[in-house]
Amino acid sequence: MKKRYLIAPGPTPVPIEVLSEGIIDIPHHRSEEFVQFAGEVFEKLKYLFQTKNKVFTFASSGTGAMESAVSNLLSPGDKAIVLVSGKFGERWNEICQAFNVETVVLESEWGDTVPLERIEKAIDENPDAKVLLTTHSETSTGTVIDLKAIGEMTKDKDIVLVTDAISSLLAQELRMDEWNIDVVVSASQKGVMLPPGLGFITMNEKAWNLVENSSSPRYYFDLRTYAKKYPESPYTPAINLIFQLKKAVEMIEEEGIEKIWERHRILADAVRAGVRSLKLELLSKKPGNVCTAVKVPNGVDGLEFVRRLRRKYGVTVAGGQGKLKGKIFRIAHLGYMGSFDVIIALSSVEMCLKEMGYDVDLGVSVKTAEEIFLKEGVV
Amino acid sequence: MKKRYLIAPGPTPVPIEVLSEGIIDIPHHRSEEFVQFAGEVFEKLKYLFQTKNKVFTFASSGTGAMESAVSNLLSPGDKAIVLVSGKFGERWNEICQAFNVETVVLESEWGDTVPLERIEKAIDENPDAKVLLTTHSETSTGTVIDLKAIGEMTKDKDIVLVTDAISSLLAQELRMDEWNIDVVVSASQKGVMLPPGLGFITMNEKAWNLVENSSSPRYYFDLRTYAKKYPESPYTPAINLIFQLKKAVEMIEEEGIEKIWERHRILADAVRAGVRSLKLELLSKKPGNVCTAVKVPNGVDGLEFVRRLRRKYGVTVAGGQGKLKGKIFRIAHLGYMGSFDVIIALSSVEMCLKEMGYDVDLGVSVKTAEEIFLKEGVV
Predict the structure, then answer these.
(1) Whole domain around residue B284: which residue ranges?
(2) Do the Cβ atoms of B340 and A347 come within 8 Å?
(3) Residue B241 clears pLDDT 90, i.e. is over it
(4) How, if at all, do strands A318-319 and A198-203 pair?
(5) Using one digit for the tens of pLDDT, what is the confidence trace for A117-127?
(6) Residues A63-98: pLDDT tens digits?
(7) How far is CA B135 from CA B62, B140, B145, B146, in A?
(8) Are B281 and B360 contained in the same domain?
(9) SS3 of B11, please?
(10) Residues of B with CB below 8 A from A23's CB?
(11) What contacts B361, CB < 8 A, 6 or more positions away?
(12) pTM of the model
C-alpha cells in the first residue's frame, strides 16, 4: 500500500463528489432532457471565463481546443504572431505550421516572458497579422504573462488576442470581457477539477468575424457547427464528464472565483517561500500561481529525483519538459488542492533531497509554509 | 472548498478503489453466485485474524459483534471477568449487564492496563467465571494490552478469552490461533479500510461449547443460525460492503499482514515522537499503534482545539471520551494511512496549537517525523 498524491500541473486531483457524479445511467445525448441539462451546465461555464460569450465544449484535450482556435480563426497563408517562452508557446507555433499559417515568433528565455513593447512593435510591424497567440500560464516553466496589459494594448488594434488558459483557468485571475481577451481556450483536467476529456473555447464578436471567413480545413472542431447546434453537441459529447462538470462548477460557484484565485495565490506563495527556504532557486522570473518550477540543485540527478518522489514517496510532481528535462521539477498548486497538499509536497521534497545528498534542514520548508498559512489563511 | 482529512480512529479513510467496488448491480443474496462469492470473501478473512476458524460477518457495527460474543457465550446469571481501562472496556460491562451477566470488573487507570497477575488472580478466585472479556486496543486512551501474554496464561484454564479487536485488527499484531485467543470480534470501519457496516466474530472450539449451552435471548446475533447457513447469511447481508470487502482484503493480502503491522508501528512511532517534540505528553502508559492520545496542554481549550482543527484546518482528530472529554485529543494512524497522513496531522496540530497560544516551534514535529521516516521507511 502506498498512498498516491498527484501534485502535477494536470491532470489534477478530482474530488470524489465530482467523480461520483459520473456514475449515472447514461442518457441519450439527443434527448430533450440531456440537451437542456447540458445547456444549463454550459451556461454556468461563462462564470469561469468571466465572459458573456458562449463557451463551447469539445470531447477533446486542451490541445484540441487550441487547434480549434487556429483552424477557425486563420486560413492557409494567414499570419499569426506567437509568443514562445516554453513548450506550450511552441505548441501554438506547431499547430500554425500544421495549418499552413505563417508565424512571427516572439521568443523569450524559458522562464521569462516577451516584453509588452516587443509585442506591440511586432503587431505594428505586421499589420497583416490576424491573430496574436499567447499562453497565459506557461506550464512548462511556471510563468505567467501580463494578459491584462496585453488586452489593454490590443483592444483597439486590428488583431485578435487568443490565449491558452488551459492551466491558468481558475488558478490565475482572468477576466475575459473586462480585459478584452478575444479568445480563450481551456480544458477540464486542471483548475476545473475534472478528469481529462473536455476542451473549452470561447470568443467574442471580434474573433467570430474571422471564423466566418476562415478557409482552413476543419470538421470536428468547426465552431460554426457547434454554434448552430448549441447547446446540443454536433457529435457525441462526453456525457458523463458533463455530469461531473455540473458538480465541479457548483463547487466553484460556491467557493467563488475571487476566493479561488486567492487560494491559489496563497498556495503558490507558500510553495515559493518553502522552496526558497531550502536554498533552492525558482526557474521563473515571473512565477505564477499554477505551478512552481524549481531548479534541481547541483549534485542531484533531476530525473532520479522525480522518479524517487513518485516511487518511494508516492508523490507525483512534474519534471522538466523539452530543454528543461532533468533540470527542474514542478510542484503544482492547481485545482482541488489546499494547504496540506503544499505541506505534503514540501515534506516529500525535503526528505527526498536529503536522502539524495543535498544539505537540507528537515522541517524548514514546512515551517515556512505553516507561517504563511497562519498569516494568510489555511486554505 | 476545504479538503477534509479523517484522522480519527474510525471511521477511517476508504481507498477509492474499495469504494468504487460498491457500485454494482446488486445481486440477490440467495443466488448461488452471490453465496459462493461471499464464501470466498469470508474465507479470506481468516488471514486478517490469523486463524483457521470461520469468521462470521454481520450487517452491524462492532458493538453488534460484541453483543453477539456476550449473548452467545453467556447465560443470565453467568459470571464474566471484564478488564476496564476505558470506554470500550466499560462497554463490555454494559452489555453484560443488559444480558444479566454477573461481572467481576478489573479496573485500571484510564491509559494504563490491568496487570497480568491481577487478571490471573481474579480467574483463580472466580473459578465459575466462564469468560474473560478484554479490549485489545482501548481506543479511548490509545492503549494496548499484552494479549499474547494473557492468552498464554488462560490457554490451560477453564475460561474463554474474548477480545475486542475492533480498532486493533491489522494495526496491532494479533495472532488468534498461535496466541490462544478463543474469541475475537472486530468491525469494518477501522484497519480493514471499509465503510462502517460490517461486524465480525470468530471463535475456536473451546468457545463454541459455550455457544451451544447459552440460554441468553438472542436472534439476529445467534451464531448457531450463522454457523448452520454459512457462508450464506441467515438475514440480508450488506451486499455492497461485501464486494468492497473483497477488494480491501485483496489489498491487505498484497501488502502482507506483517508489513501492515510494521507500517502502523512506524506511523505510530512518528506520531509519538512528533508529539513529544512539541513538549506534549502522551496519555497512555502503554501506547499502541492504533491511535495516540495526547494530553491537551494547560491553557488550551481542548474542545475548541478539536473543533478548530476540524473547521479551520479540515482535519478531524478525535477528542476525549467520557471522563477524558476536553482533556485529550487522539491522532489515529489506522487503516488506509501513510507517512503523509502523519505529516498532515502533526502540521495541523502545530499550527492550531500555535494560534491558540501554545508555545510551538513550527515545523519541529514534522522534522521529527521526517527523521523517523527516513530511518525506518516512508510508508
Answers:
(1) 256-376
(2) yes
(3) yes
(4) unpaired
(5) 999 999 999 99
(6) 999 999 999 999 999 999 999 999 999 999 999 999
(7) 12, 11, 7, 10
(8) yes
(9) coil
(10) 23
(11) A367, B278
(12) 0.95
Of A236, A255, A274, which closes a domain? A255
Q: How far apart are CA A51 and CA A40, in angstroms?
A: 16
Using a CB–CB cut-off of 8 Å, the residues of B that contact A are: 1-3, 5, 16, 19, 23, 251, 254-255, 260, 263, 312-315, 336-341, 343-344, 347-348, 350-351, 354-355, 361-364, 366-368, 370-371, 373-374, 378-379
- Secondary structure, 3-state, A75-87: CCCCEEEEEECCH
Q: How far is A143 from chain B (nearest CA, A)?
A: 25
What residue type is A335 in one-letter code? G
- Strand, coil or helix: A291: strand
B352 vs A363, B28, B302, B339, CA distance in Å? Answer: 17, 49, 11, 20
Mean pLDDT of B57-71: 97
Residue for grid cell 451546465: A41
Split into its structural domains, chain A has a count of 2
B106 in the same domain as B83: yes
How many whole angstroms separate alpha carbon A332 and alpha carbon A182?
28
Identify residues of A whose CB sits under 8 angstroms from chain B CBs.
1-3, 5, 16, 19, 23, 251, 254-255, 260, 263, 312-315, 336-341, 343-344, 347-348, 350-351, 354-355, 361-364, 366-368, 370-371, 373-374, 378-379
Residue A236, C-beta contacts closer than 8 angstroms, at least 6 positions apart: A29, A59
Contact B370 A364 (CB under 8 A): no
Residue with grid cell 479490549, as numbered in its chain: B135
Question: How far does the CA of residue B281 sit from the closest CA of chain A (Å)?
Answer: 21
Cell matching residue B134? 478484554
Assess contact for B258 and B48: CB atoms under 8 A: no
Q: Are residues B201 and B270 in the same domain?
A: no
Q: In chain B, helix, strand, coil percent, each to 5?
A: 45, 15, 40
Residues 6+ apart with CB under 8 A from A212: A224
Task: Among B254, B315, B363, select the one facing A366 at the smallest CB separation.
Answer: B363
Together in a domain, B143 and B47? yes
Nearest chain B residue to A311, by CA = B378
pLDDT of residue A49 exceeding 90: yes
Instruction: Identify whether residues B241 and B370 lie together within a single domain.
Output: no
- Size of chain B, expressed as the number of residues it contains: 379
Residue position matching grid coordinates 488468534: B176
Q: What is the DSSP letter of A371?
A: H
Residue A363 in any domain: the answer is: yes
